[in-house]
Recover the amino acids of this structure.
């Protein structure tokens, strides 16, 4: 089992017991998400329980590539279980965080951790290779996520400070060859928000790695689990180290930024507007405009060549990337980054309280609905909105569940429901939460691969693979008033070349008003679901790097590295010989397994509907996507569009048919599950009358 | 109106009116587009909000955010109307209107009106003795 450590740690918090599961029992599901779903399916007999029920099982899974040189897959951890965040049903869901936790877990000898039960008092788990101890977390309870990690580092390493003269070999009673290390343990922790079972509680690892979506911080809190620390000193067997090195060189030479010219933002020569760093992989691309403010240097997850984050001189916003850096958007960069740090210290999932969250609260205040004399009374300092004082107060209240924070700790959508506002605000679009209560990401009326994938799943998909090419890059250039940097037909050619097994189908990327309800769009969504479930969430290639369709570093064709790279690294590490298409078939199997779990939770096609504003309120701003008009590929402006309710319902029929699901219910069928070698899953569905 | 010509300073009363925060129904809707978060609606309640929203980084054009950042979008015609009718600053509205060109890109139009918005904001602050 090259690439795998061979065992998965199963921890029962109720009885303080530890067991191991053999990874080979689940290897057919690749790793990460696939193994997590399969274990969850087996371990949780009643899938309709609350996420806060001690019987809920949370998995933290690595990939066979974790801890290796495989680009962007070396340090990511997949987290799954019943999540309290999705609305209105608390679906079985997922999240993922970067850093080095998964690598350290592998070095400690494990492919994943399965957590069940509930500790009778605050507990943290201390894993040092084969030693696994349930530790007392009384002293850590109430601490923020950064302080918690610092305390655990001290506890495990035994050194009182980080100054070089005090630095010790952490396992000093061992010899150099059997476990001495200067590495600090990798810790994932919850903050006060998770302790209070917030539905927007996050898991935080180091400064800026968060498993935010799903509310798993709250689930840890419900289990009295404050943190998991891992220190490992083993190595990972790589089947063909030479092939792995060569593959890494291949990707670097052909598809990455030029280290002689790391600022490269080619091909757009317009000041320093970004956008292209997402495909040329210029380091530090995830930190927005911070380098204008103070010195910073690139930082990344273990072994990732992209290094999309930064460490800053002041420490503000260090390692943060993605939505947290625009959490308090519109404010000064310093305040923005301070806010990101603050939310991460509290262990609060930034996305649902960022722009669409606090903006909504301020709009309600302006309506006189919230405030000292509002229908819902609160002393939140709205007069300081835009300043640190407001966001600090908001985060404190959420984290402590004080006053209005008690409602908001349940998430803005559930708070709006409690206040009697939800229906009207989803209908007008004042609250932009199109699916399962998650904030709107890319526009659900136009770039439909995003919302379709989300509503068929359990959360906002947050998968940028198609998005960079078919929307974001043309969007930027068009708004800048430049000629499109890339020709729409060239991009669509490159994307469609790569989408094995549907390669060559260009209509899959026609986002014109009619084609978004077509059979081609069925294939677009199916491809993305299978790819994500296998290569992205099980093998765990990072979303910011994979898939790669159109890459200007690879001139003259600009063809990206998908579908060649995905199996190349996987096979070099594991010694298996699977093709890209094999991976997609496994992805389809995992997708159907997840779909079955949702069916067992009661999922029905009637639930798969967007918030009303998606159907009723036209898109107000320009929004460019690839589309074929009168025989020519163009970047079409989707401004003014809404989604057609009836046509979307018909599209669902087509999608369910394509998958072999029941079009009346949207649920998998015995036939389709047996075809995927999931007959045992069909048995359980039948037993529970859900097939 | 020439590029560099300042608008006449407003009176204290006028500056107060221009700088006030308007009500919910009078807000201007804007959109922040970023690569990580996609499109997000923003509510603009005052000239200060508008200037800050469009000002991604002082001294540079609103798009030029070094490594990433985003696009701050407002409907320019709607903005003129909002300034004219809601903030009741007809001079600023006229100044902006005269700089907008139908066949120009959004960015070029925004670049041409941003200095005027900044000037008006600074003038009002000065008149109201605000730092
Ligand atoms: S691209 Fe960024 S977030 Fe993804 S693995 Fe690399 S450093 Fe981590």
């Amino acid at each position: 089992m090259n690439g795998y450590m061979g065992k998965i740690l199963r921890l029962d918090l109720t009885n303080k017991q530890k067991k191991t599961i053999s990874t080979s029992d689940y290897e057919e599901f690749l790793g990460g998400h696939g193994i997590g779903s399969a274990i969850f399916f087996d371990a949780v007999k009643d899938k309709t329980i609350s996420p806060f029920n001690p019987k809920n099982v949370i998995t933290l899974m690595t990939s066979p590539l974790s801890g290796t040189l495989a680009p962007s897959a070396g340090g990511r951890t997949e987290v799954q279980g019943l999540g309290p965040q999705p609305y209105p049903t608390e679906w079985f869901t997922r999240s993922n965080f970067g850093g080095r936790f998964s690598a350290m877990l592998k070095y400690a000898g494990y492919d994943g951790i399965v957590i069940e039960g509930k500790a009778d008092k605050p507990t943290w788990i201390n894993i040092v290779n084969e030693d696994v101890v349930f530790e007392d977390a009384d002293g850590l309870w109430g601490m923020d996520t950064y302080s918690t990690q610092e305390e655990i580092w001290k506890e495990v390493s035994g050194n009182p400070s980080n100054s070089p003269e005090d630095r010790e070999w952490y396992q000093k009673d061992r010899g150099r060859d059997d476990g001495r290390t200067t590495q600090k343990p990798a810790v994932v922790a919850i903050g006060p928000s998770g302790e209070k079972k917030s539905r927007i509680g996050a898991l935080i690892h180091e400064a800026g790695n968060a498993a935010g979506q799903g509310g798993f911080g709250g689930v840890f809190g419900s289990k009295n689990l404050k943190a998991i620390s891992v220190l490992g000193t083993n190595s990972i067997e790589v089947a063909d180290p030479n092939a792995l090195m060569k593959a890494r060189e291949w990707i670097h030479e052909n598809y990455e930024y030029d280290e002689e010219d790391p600022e490269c933002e080619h091909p757009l020569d317009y000041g320093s507007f970004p956008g292209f760093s997402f495909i040329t992989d210029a380091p530090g691309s995830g930190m927005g405009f911070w380098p204008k403010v103070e010195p910073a240097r690139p930082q990344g997850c273990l072994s990732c060549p992209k290094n999309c984050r930064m460490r800053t001189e002041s420490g503000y916003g260090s390692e943060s990337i993605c939505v947290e850096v625009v959490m308090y958007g519109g404010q000064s960069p310093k305040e923005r980054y301070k806010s990101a740090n603050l939310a991460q210290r509290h262990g609060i999932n930034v996305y649902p309280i960022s722009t669409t969250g606090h903006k909504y609260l301020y709009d309600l205040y302006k309506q006189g609905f919230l405030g000292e004399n509002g229908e819902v009374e609160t002393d939140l300092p709205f007069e300081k909105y835009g300043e640190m004082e407001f966001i600090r107060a908001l985060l404190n209240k959420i984290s402590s569940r004080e006053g209005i924070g008690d409602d908001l700790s349940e998430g803005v959508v559930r708070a709006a429901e409690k206040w009697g506002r939800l229906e009207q605000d989803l209908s007008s679009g004042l609250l932009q939460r199109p699916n399962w209560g998650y904030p709107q990401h890319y526009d659900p009326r136009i770039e439909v691969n995003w919302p379709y994938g989300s509503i068929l799943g359990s959360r906002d998909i947050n998968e940028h693979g198609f998005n960079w090419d078919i929307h974001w890059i043309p969007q930027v250039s068009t708004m800048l008033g430049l000629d499109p940097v890339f020709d729409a037909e060239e991009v669509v050619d490159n994307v469609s070349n790569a989408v094995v097994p549907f390669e060559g189908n260009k209509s899959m990327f026609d986002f014109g008003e009619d084609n978004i309800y077509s059979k081609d769009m069925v294939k677009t969504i199916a491809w993305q679901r299978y790819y994500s479930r296998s290569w992205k969430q099980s093998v765990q290639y990072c979303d910011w790097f994979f898939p790669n369709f159109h890459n200007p570093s690879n001139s003259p064709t600009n063809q990206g590295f998908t579908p060649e790279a995905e199996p190349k690294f996987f096979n070099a590490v594991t010694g298996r010989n699977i093709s890209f298409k094999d991976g997609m078939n496994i992805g389809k199997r995992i997708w159907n397994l997840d779909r079955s779990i949702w069916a067992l939770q009661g999922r029905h096609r009637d639930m798969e509907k967007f918030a009303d504003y998606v159907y009723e309120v036209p898109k107000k701003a320009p929004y460019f996507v690839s589309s074929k008009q009168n025989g020519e590929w163009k970047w079409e402006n989707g401004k003014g569009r809404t989604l057609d309710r009836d046509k979307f319902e018909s599209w669902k029929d087509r999608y369910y048919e394509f998958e072999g699901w029941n079009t009346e219910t949207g649920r998998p069928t015995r036939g389709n599950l047996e075809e995927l070698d999931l007959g045992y899953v069909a048995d359980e569905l039948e037993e529970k009358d859900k097939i | 109106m020439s590029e560099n010509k300042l608008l006449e300073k407003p009176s204290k009363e006028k500056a107060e009116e221009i700088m006030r925060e308007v009500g919910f129904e009078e807000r201007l809707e804007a959109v922040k587009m970023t690569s990580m978060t996609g499109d997000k609606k923003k509510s603009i309640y005052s000239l200060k909000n508008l200037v800050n929203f469009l000002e991604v980084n002082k001294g540079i054009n609103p798009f030029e955010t070094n490594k990433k950042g985003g696009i701050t979008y407002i409907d320019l015609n709607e903005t003129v109307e909002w300034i004219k009718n809601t903030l009741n600053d007809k001079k600023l509205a006229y100044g902006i209107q005269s700089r907008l060109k139908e066949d120009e890109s959004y960015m070029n139009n925004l670049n041409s009106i941003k200095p005027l918005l900044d000037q008006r904001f600074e003038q009002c602050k000065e008149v109201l003795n605000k730092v």
